[in-house]
């Protein structure tokens, strides 16, 4: 394997240290700028455009990540690469993953799965844990939520299964949008076909990022949507066999 090219430049939205909810252990979370999806409930619309990111080389990001190596070793943590959508910068993403692997840093890829088959095949072999944000199972509903087609998340999950990459599913539960219990049962049955899925998290919808939409001049259409009730969350957790 060729030595990772640490001079490759990416657009970085921000870097957060001390993360505790973005994978196992204590993690440094690198948010890449740029995302082709337009999810109705996105709480980080400020990450949509790469031009808003700060240019950094792989080497510069790696230097920041390695400052906390002792915390990773102690806690079983590492780096989580998020966004935006990391697959929107595939060359930078691959080089960063390679550099982390060469330096013994555990990697988590937090993604909506918006990658082509070629890109997913190039990137996933260097991912230690995949965190896949699965928006919906029905193709029409998926497009309504994201303004994009559903094929790519399925491609990502299929390749992860072939490579036996440990995978955590994240699903944002939005009342009156993707909370149809029959559809969720179909999704649960689909996930049961993937033995590499270790965990499914049901994340309650929230509006913490609503103000960003207004500040950026975007229309937020879910301002009247309330978070899911504890009863609904419990029903959905039961469907996915979450105790």
Give structural notes.
This protein is α/β, with parallel strands linked by helices and 243 residues long. The chain contains nine helices and eight strands. The protein has helices spanning 58-66, 69-75, 90-102, 117-123, 139-146, 151-163, 181-191, 210-216, 230-239, and strands spanning 9-19, 27-32, 54-57, 78-82, 106-111, 129-133, 167-173, 197-204. An eight-stranded mixed β-sheet has the order 3-1-2-4-5-6-7-8. Strand 5 (106-111), helix 4 and strand 6 (129-133) form a beta-alpha-beta unit. Helix 1 packs across helix 3. The longest helix is centred in the middle third of the chain and has 13 residues, at 90-102. The protein is globular. The model has no long low-confidence stretch (mean pLDDT 93).
Q: Could you name the key traits of this structure?
A:
8-stranded mixed beta sheet, alpha/beta, 243 residues, 21% strand
Topology:
Elements (H helix, E strand, L loop, with lengths): L8 E11 L7 E6 L21 E4 H9 L2 H7 L2 E5 L7 H13 L3 E6 L5 H7 L5 E5 L5 H8 L4 H13 L3 E7 L7 H11 L5 E8 L5 H7 L13 H10 L4
Helix pairs in contact: 1-3
CA(first)-CA(last) distance = 42 Å
Q: What is the topology, as strand order, of the major beta sheet?
A: 3-1-2-4-5-6-7-8
The percent range for helix content is: 25-40%
What number is the mean pLDDT? 93
Q: What structural category arises from helix and sheet content?
A: alpha/beta
Mind describing the biggest β-sheet? 8 strands, mixed
Unreliable spans are none
Tell me the radius of gyration: 18 Å
Order of helices and strands: EEEHHEHEHEHHEHEHH
Task: List the total number of helices.
Answer: 9
* Shape, principal axes of CA atoms: globular
* Proportion in β-strands: 15-25%
Strand elements, count: 8
């Amino acid at each position: 394997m060729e030595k990772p090219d640490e001079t490759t430049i990416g657009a970085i939205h921000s870097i957060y240290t001390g993360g505790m909810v973005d994978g196992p252990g204590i993690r440094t979370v690198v948010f890449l700028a740029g995302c082709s999806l337009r999810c109705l409930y996105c709480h980080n619309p400020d990450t949509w455009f790469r031009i808003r990111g700060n240019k950094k080389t792989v080497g510069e990001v790696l230097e920041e990540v390695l400052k906390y190596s002792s915390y990773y070793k102690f806690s079983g943590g590492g780096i989580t690469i998020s966004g935006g959508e990391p697959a929107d910068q595939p060359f930078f993403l691959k080089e960063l993953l390679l550099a982390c692997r060469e330096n013994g840093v555990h990697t988590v890829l937090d993604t909506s799965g918006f990658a082509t088959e070629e890109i997913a095949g190039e990137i996933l072999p260097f991912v230690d844990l995949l965190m896949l944000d699965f928006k919906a199972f029905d193709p029409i509903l998926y497009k309504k939520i994201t303004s994009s087609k559903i094929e790519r998340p399925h491609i990502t999950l299929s390749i992860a299964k072939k490579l036996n990459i440990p995978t955590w599913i994240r699903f944002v539960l939005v009342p009156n949008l993707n909370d149809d219990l029959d559809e969720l049962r179909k999704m649960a049955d689909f996930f049961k076909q993937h033995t590499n899925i270790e965990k499914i998290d049901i994340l309650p919808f929230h509006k913490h990022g609503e103000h960003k939409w207004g500040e950026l001049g975007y229309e937020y259409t879910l301002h009247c949507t309330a978070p899911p009730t504890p009863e609904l969350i419990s029903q959905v957790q039961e469907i996915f066999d979450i105790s």
